[in-house]
Recover the amino acids of this structure.
């Protein structure tokens, strides 16, 4: 599958979907607190999608049963919401969410603190969020995919954390997952050349310990092999002649605290 460049009109449609995602994530952040279950959070997203007349992109995709991937503490990605998973003071919780609107997808993720968290957890979230910002700075025509991954990896590893290798970012548009793949590691000057009209979802998944991950028996939930903490931030970004345009951020949606 080749990279598909988007027209200005198509980017505007992706922006609409991505802004819905940002609005949902902001509401999820407001709902995160001790005593809330991960299914409660999923229900918030479902209700908002129904109210706005948009489709939660992940539900049913590849067989995933819910609207939001909700991953707590050592869970990296693809956590299944459950009425039995109660958030506790000191947890961190990642919410990964997508929307299909008018034929186009938006995708983003945030990690939230549940009440007061440890210094390690807070720093992990801060570093992960900043690594995404540094990756976005590379989203200009003429750069390469490897520049994005190198920006994440070099910063994260200098801060004493590690980057997950098994899961990567991706192009996005009429399909949730399009070319190119966008790893969170790599060598500068390598990989697909970035061009105006590309739209990508960049999503650093950063671990406080080693980068190795395993999948639990539910065949969905991915956890760190050493069971150390993991954080996940993601945005949908359009690459334009004027530089990167982040499509999925709205006020209150950026995560880190609840």
């Amino acid at each position: 599958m080749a990279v598909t460049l988007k027209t200005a009109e198509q980017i505007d449609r992706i922006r609409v979907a991505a802004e819905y995602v940002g609005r949902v994530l902001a509401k999820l952040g407001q709902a995160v607190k001790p005593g809330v279950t991960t299914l409660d959070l999923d229900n918030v997203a479902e209700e908002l999608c129904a109210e706005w007349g948009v489709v939660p992109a992940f539900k049913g995709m590849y067989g995933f049963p819910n609207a939001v991937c909700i991953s707590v503490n050592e869970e990296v990605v693809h956590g299944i919401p459950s009425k039995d998973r109660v958030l506790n003071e000191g947890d961190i919780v990642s919410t990964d969410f997508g929307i299909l609107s008018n034929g186009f997808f938006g995708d983003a993720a945030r990690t939230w603190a549940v009440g007061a968290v440890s210094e390690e957890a807070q720093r992990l979230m801060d570093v992960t969020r900043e690594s995404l910002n540094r990756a976005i700075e590379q989203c200009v025509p003429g750069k390469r995919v490897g520049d994005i991954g190198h920006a994440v990896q070099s910063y994260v590893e200098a801060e004493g954390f590690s980057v997950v290798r098994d899961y990567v970012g991706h192009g996005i548009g009429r399909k949730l997952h399009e070319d190119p793949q966008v790893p969170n590691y790599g060598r500068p000057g390598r990989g697909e050349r970035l061009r105006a009209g590309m739209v990508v979802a960049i999503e650093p998944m950063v671990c406080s310990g080693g980068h190795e991950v395993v999948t639990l028996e539910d065949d969905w939930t991915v956890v760190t092999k050493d069971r150390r903490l993991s954080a996940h931030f993601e945005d949908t970004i359009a690459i334009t002649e004027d530089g990167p345009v982040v499509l999925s951020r709205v006020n209150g949606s950026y995560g880190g605290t609840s």
Notes: The longest strand covers residues 92-101. The two ends are 39 Å apart (CA to CA). The CA atoms of residues 59 and 67 lie 5 Å apart.
